[in-house]
Design goal:
The protein is of the alpha+beta class and about 525 residues long. The chain has a domain of about 180 residues: Nucleotidyltransferase, domain 5 (2-Layer Sandwich). Helix content is about 35%, strand content about 20%. The chain is built from 15 helices and 24 strands. A hairpin with a 3-residue loop joins β16 and β17. α4 crosses α5. The longest helix is centred in the last third of the chain and has 27 residues. The radius of gyration is 23 Å and the shape is globular. The termini are far apart. The C terminus is likely disordered.
Length: about 525
């Protein structure tokens, strides 16, 4: 008789924009055994400003670790069964703290914060080509979302940080760096290649900090954390009830989800969360997009070759459902979306509430509704809102086709809004591809668990399978006609937004929206559709 295998578990710490979660996952089948989470409150002092208290994140994490361990013990499961801890975080949120006091020097600046738009404008007004080098070596666009600009603002505007910089006691990084520092009781000051590749400071090819990029943004190069791979034994946790357990994986949450099913060239995945992110595996060589996408590190497992991804995203994705519910009062709850039956209409909504991101890069765009008639009703508005997510995803897939010549025949999806079958049906019809929803709406914890297991030589078996595949029901001509109208709506949304001035009494900075990419790309895309219509 075969002896029963001892229980071997992986713990995953996940920090997202409004939530901290700790999960215990079985390595034998990939099932989540125990999980606890706590919400995180965002702080919005002024228009365009979004912050979060780093100490509240840390305190919430300590509470949920305690809750999970207590439940583990109450189920007669030994703490020794947890073999490794993985850490995943929402990218681009940055924090600075003092190594002597071990306290934050300012609130963490959230990834969606746009206060640094004025800094970009100042740079570009003096030299239009000032960011050319940075964009070439990092694969990114210089926009307010990425970390370097937030760090620059912190160093120039927070007196405590200026003092700590002179003393060389300042520490800074994305949330993975902050939590690793806290969990190891100041022993580890590190980040990983996926988070580092989003800072505008890392050379994509060398996987090292760029001294020249740091100089451009006036970031102290010598004070940056050490860059590590996504899977290795970094060190032991020295505080909380996880004390003594190794940290074996650190990776940005989107890349952790991407790792689960996109390990071959050309595989594409979308995450339908508050923003919608679409990424494509491009293998081991850096490819610079010529059609509005960015290049990031997808993952690096130990000493293996790094894998890269081309990526695009929308500033507003599934969060448009909150707009429908809270602002427009069209739906009472998001659950209504599960039972809606809405015929196709000729209504198009471009939800450029914070400008347009990939592939347009038009911060001067605003939201717009096109095509309304006397017959338009609230169901048409709901459908057009959901379809805007799908059209944005198609924008990115077309850019991918132009950059690397792949046609997306299957799109894998996860994220909290992927639970809505109606949304995936719309996506299949608009993209003309099969849409495969994975077995959970948050695949990141499974990817992180598997990556962590690798660091300790633990076999990880995820026995869960996909539970839904939506296939297109439209013709190519129908898809082209509708996409052409979407592009017309996008064009009409651009150029509306004017520079916004924050009251000088509140702070000395202007929030200024810059036109990073001209309309040439948009016009070219529309031209392609016109040709297609005339065939």
């Amino acid at each position: 008789m075969k002896a029963e295998q001892p229980l071997q578990l992986v713990g995953v710490i996940s920090v997202e924009s409004v939530n901290v979660k700790f999960s215990i996952i079985s390595s034998s089948n990939g099932n989540v055994l125990i999980e606890s989470s706590k919400p995180v409150e965002l702080i919005k002092l002024y228009p365009e400003w979004v912050e979060v208290d780093p100490e509240s994140i840390w305190n919430s994490l300590k509470i949920i670790i305690e809750e999970v361990i207590n439940e583990l013990i109450s189920n007669d499961i030994s703490l020794d069964c947890i073999k490794v801890i993985s850490i995943i975080n929402e990218r681009d949120t940055v924090v600075a703290w003092d190594s002597e006091t071990n306290k934050p020097l300012y609130n963490a600046i959230h990834y969606s914060d746009n206060r640094t738009d004025s800094i970009i404008q100042d740079y570009v007004s003096k030299d239009p080509n000032v960011f050319k080098y940075v964009e070439e070596i990092t694969g990114l666009k210089v926009v307010s979302m990425f970390s370097a600009l937030k760090l620059k603002w912190l160093f120039e505007n927070v007196d405590n940080i200026k003092i700590s910089t002179v003393k060389e006691t300042v520490k800074f990084g994305t949330l993975d760096t902050w939590l690793t520092w806290k969990l190891t009781n100041r022993n580890l000051y590190i980040t990983d290649v996926t988070n580092a590749s989003r800072t505008l400071l890392m050379n994509l090819k060398t996987l090292k900090w760029s001294e020249k990029a740091c100089k451009i943004f006036n970031i102290p190069f010598s004070l940056l954390p050490t860059i590590k791979s996504n899977s290795e034994l970094y060190g032991k946790i020295n505080i909380t009830r996880l004390k003594g357990i190794m940290i074996g994986a650190i990776i940005a949450n989107h890349q952790a989800a991407f790792y689960v099913k996109c390990r071959s060239f050309g595989q594409v995945m979308s995450r339908y969360n508050d923003s919608c992110i679409t990424s494509c595996n491009i293998g081991n060589e850096v490819i610079q997009s010529k059609h509005g996408l960015i290049t990031s590190v997808a993952y690096q497992i130990g000493n293996e070759s790094v894998s890269y991804a081309l990526e695009g995203w929308t500033s507003v994705g599934g969060k448009i459902t909150e707009w429908l519910k809270n602002n427009m009062k069209i739906i009472n709850s998001e659950d209504e979306l599960k039972t809606l039956d809405i015929d196709v209409s000729d209504i198009y909504i471009v939800p450029a509430f914070n400008g347009l991101a990939t592939p347009y890069w038009r911060p001067d765009a605003t939201g717009i509704i096109c095509g309304m008639t006397h017959y338009t009703n609230k169901k048409h508005i709901i459908r057009a809102s959901l379809e805007s997510i799908c059209f944005h995803t198609k924008d990115i897939c077309i850019a991918l086709q132009k950059d690397i010549g792949i046609t997306t025949s299957q799109l894998m999806v996860d994220g909290k809004y992927s639970c809505y079958d109606i949304l995936l049906n719309y996506q299949a019809d608009i993209l003309g591809a099969n849409i495969r929803r994975l077995h959970a709406t948050d695949m990141a914890i499974y990817g992180a668990a598997e990556i962590g297991a690798k660091s300790v030589g633990l076999e990880f078996n995820d026995t869960n399978s996909s539970d839904f595949i939506s296939k297109p029901t439209t013709t190519e001509n129908e898809r082209n006609n509708r996409y052409y109208k979407w592009l017309k709506a996008v064009r009409r949304s651009c150029g509306w937004k004017k520079p916004v001035q924050i009251d000088k009494k509140l702070n000395k900075f202007d929030i200024f929206s810059t036109n990073i990419l001209s309309t040439a790309y948009l016009v070219a895309m529309m031209g392609m559709m016109v040709i297609s219509d005339n065939k």
